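Holo prediction — adenosine-5'-triphosphate.
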Amino acid sequence: MKTILVADDDQAIRRTLELHLVEEGFVVLTAADGCEAVEKACQEEVGLVLLDVRLPGKDGFEVLGCIKERRPTLPVVVVTAYDDMQTAIKAIRLGATDYLGKPVDLDHLDEVIDKIFEMSALARNGVVFQEASDTPYEQNVMVGRSRAMKEVYKTIGAVADSRATVLIQGESGTGKEMVARALHFNSSFRNRPFIAVACSSLAPTILESELFGHEKGAFTGAYRTKPGKFELAQGGTLFLDEISETSPEIQVKLLRFLQEKEFERVGGIETIKADVRVVAASNKELAALVESGVFRKDLYYRLNVVTICLQPLRERKEDILQLVKMFLEKIRLETGKCVNIVPQETMNLILAHSWPGNVRELENTLHRAVLLSHGNVLLSGSLQLEGDRERDRLALVVKPLHEVEREHIENILIYTNYEKKWASEILGISRPTLDRRVKEYGLEDAPKSLV
Ligand SMILES: Nc1ncnc2c1ncn2[C@@H]1O[C@H](COP(=O)(O)OP(=O)(O)OP(=O)(O)O)[C@@H](O)[C@H]1O
Ligand SMILES: [Mg+2]
């Protein structure tokens, strides 16, 4: 039989709730003050606590804290006359499973209780993560024991210390940047800089000066000499993310650097030497881009001294359980919300999903689910898994061209903080053309949040 503890200092309320719950088939214990409530809640048979906020001895929130310390998975429903948002938020943040206002609506109470016992039943045959997680979250530590990931760790260990160029390939969200960091932070030059450059986010001319620096007067706006990332990364690692997006001109310069370890700043004549370990990443198959002539073959061979391929998550599902554990722990540390029970039903859904966005999608999905869940059980309904990739892709492209153009121009304007000269350079159109489009699409004003 299920036992419910009713903690309230008001005898009339205790009595009403007790009578009702006994009628519903529960065993009922009662407590009239905070200390008694904590003591009784710790008895093993108690499966649920209805907790008043204003209690003599210890107030309800204190009691909640004590209960969560000793029996973290025991569901507690806070019942309060302070039926306001702040109390509700505080109760849920402190780990209450639900929250009810006084006077208690008995039908609503029954619903809440049914739901909680249903969750507990689900949880019993679910995966329970220990209170002190056996998968503690550590920043920059990769998780996963699949054969594919073990190979990755071995390669990292073998090549971290060499200054050999490494190419990391894998779909979006598979952990390429994590591998790049692992290479750097497991090397003997870990105290030197690690600098990442997203090659796809900058226009070719800007990327060139970003990487190699420029001399004063190299182009309009170059008021002073500026060192590039190759110089700044001296002695350390330069991570070139999305290397497939580099222009032919930059590819030539990169090739020269990899061959000779030297380059010139944009507009400069002095040859600069730099001792930098290059790690490049791509979510496109570089070999295929070489075939189609978009990417230089000689550069590909230079980058490809060591290649690390990250498998999509759907091909190493044995890593999912450990990743879920680690992310729930990470999310707990970030948000203070402890969700540590994953019912089998939820786990099945997670395992069946194809995770087109890979580990990043898994993390985001869990984060959202934890924020939406009450109590410490991850219900399948809170997962909100995205549809399959083909459908998403179609949804993305079924739009008229002018709409895509408008969105793109707006994004670039936001990116450049509405510096139209810079925006027109990135867009590769003249300033008057940009002005015309801006007017046509009504993009004159920066959104309020930016100003
Ligand atoms: N094996 C792993 N263990 C722990 N966390 C991981 C792992 N793989 C990926 N992640 C996490 O997933 C997220 C995505 O990883 P990362 O940014 O390294 O992917 P990526 O391959 O560079 O993606 P993109 O191609 O979209 O840039 C990050 O938050 C990262 O911490
Ligand atoms: Mg990345």
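READOUT: The pocket of adenosine-5'-triphosphate (ligand 1) is lined by residues 142-144, 170, 172-178, 283, 359-360, 363 (CB under 6 Å).
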